[in-house]
Write a structure and sequence with these properties.
By secondary structure, the chain is an alpha+beta fold. 44% of the residues lie in helices and 13% in strands.
Length: 417
């Protein structure tokens, strides 16, 4: 039944956009903000498309039906109404890039600024060159797949998936706004190249850690001072669970409260993988190393290289592990997995009859590792979250490295470190 003036006038906004159908593809799209937009769905050359006829009540029902009739006449002649006079401005406003800009502006206030910048940069680099200039309602699944194939040629399989996800989110926004009829990315399931099997960084079993630490304490290389810097850098990485880059470029000004009860290493956002500031609570053992290096090292870097104005090189620590006999058995990055394994195996006895529960909450462990949370709302966290329990956890880890005990999660009993 055709739409009536009363129905159009009295239509109230809802939580999500909805349609009031007229006839022959014409409908009124009622937006959550109360805006009412005339749209016409049609097919041309096998593609489903949408025309925009303006907003109600500026464009009344009669005027919208007249425009629908004009569009139908063009279709009978084999022409695409979208390409007719008067549609060029609509096309410019509703290209994929234009809609993506509206989508991004709509959501970026809820995102970490660095994450929002990465999302937009990925679209600019990989998506817009292929899809940005096209009217969003014209884009098909093969168009998106062709764009993805270009990314896959670089071997960037993780980026290709993120690009597909971003395109899909833009289309979901466009569908809600009445600018597209479907999301072409939903038809790409199984079409993307599979990720290669993840190769985890090499790490020792916890039982071999005491022998490794003893070898590290005796480490010698070309000079006594260089040996001490390398040894302390490796130990500091083990004590703090940070990534190699985060440690190499550490500067003395990032360390706070070293003479107090709550020493902190404040790593700036630009050096973090996830683009947000990270606070590392320092154990007494880590604090001792930081204080020693600040007092004895020239320049600004906590662990200087062969020149005081340059940081320790990226190969210095891994080569030290090679010299200690741990080639292919332990990497510096693998310390993070080693520490995570330890933290997740710590149990405490609770209740009667006795049950074993985790000593450290998984969120503390993930926060200490500065891992990204897939939930974007949750990831916009305060950098100091869980700081107190993480400080206790890191001190327990440092004490364990000095010969404490660990609880076997499988057997539920303590064993010597």
């Amino acid at each position: 039944m055709p739409l009536t003036e009363t129905q159009a006038r009295n239509a109230k906004p809802r939580e999500r956009a909805y349609k009031l159908s007229d006839s022959e593809g014409l409908f009124l799209l009622v937006q959550p903000n109360g805006t009412k937009l005339w749209r016409m769905k049609y097919r041309h050359s096998g593609k489903e498309k949408l025309l925009s006829f303006g907003a109600y009540p500026a464009v009344g029902i009669s005027a919208a039906r007249e425009r629908r009739a004009e569009a139908k006449a063009l279709l009978i002649q084999g022409q695409d109404p979208m390409q007719s006079k008067g549609q060029s401005q609509r096309e410019e406003l509703e290209t994929f890039e234009a809609v993506a800009k509206r989508w991004h502006d709509n959501r970026k206030s809820a995102l970490n600024p660095a994450h929002a910048e990465r999302v937009w940069s990925r679209l600019e680099r990989d998506v817009f060159p292929a899809l940005g200039h096209k009217p969003i309602s014209d884009i098909t699944a093969p168009d998106v797949l062709a764009m993805i194939r270009e990314i896959e040629k670089r071997g960037a399989l993780d980026i290709s998936r993120r690009a597909k996800q971003g395109v899909g989110q833009v289309f979901q926004f466009a569908i809600a706004c009445g600018l597209a009829a479907n999301d072409p990315t939903t038809h790409l399931r199984g079409a993307l190249k599979p990720r290669p099997r993840v190769q985890h960084m090499s790490r020792l079993p916890l039982s071999e850690l005491p022998a490794f630490l003893e070898k590290l304490r005796c480490y010698q290389e070309e000079g006594e001072r260089r040996s001490a810097i390398t040894r302390d850098a490796v130990m500091f990485a083990l004590l703090t669970w940070v990534r190699t880059k985060e440690l190499r470029f550490a500067v003395k000004s990032e360390f706070e409260g070293l003479n107090g009860s709550e020493p902190i290493w404040r790593i700036p956002a630009h050096r973090m993988k996830m683009g947000r500031e990270h606070l590392v609570p320092l154990s007494a053992q880590a604090t001792a190393i930081a204080k020693k290096m600040i007092a004895s090292s020239p320049g600004d870097y906590l662990f200087p290289g062969t020149h005081p104005d340059k940081p320790i090189s990226e190969n210095t620590m891994i080569y030290a592990l090679y010299r200690l006999g741990y080639h292919s058995r332990q990497t510096v990055h693998g310390f993070r997995g080693l520490a995570s394994t330890w933290a997740n195996e710590q149990l405490v006895e609770f209740g009667k009859p006795a049950i074993w529960i985790r000593r450290y909450h998984e969120d503390w462990v993930e926060m200490q590792l500065a891992h990204s949370d897939k939930d974007e709302v949750r990831s916009a966290y305060n950098a100091a979250e869980y700081l107190t329990p993480r400080r206790l956890m890191m001190q327990d880890w440092a004490d364990f490295l000095n010969g404490g005990t660990v609880v076997d999660i499988k057997r539920g009993r303590k064993r010597a470190a």
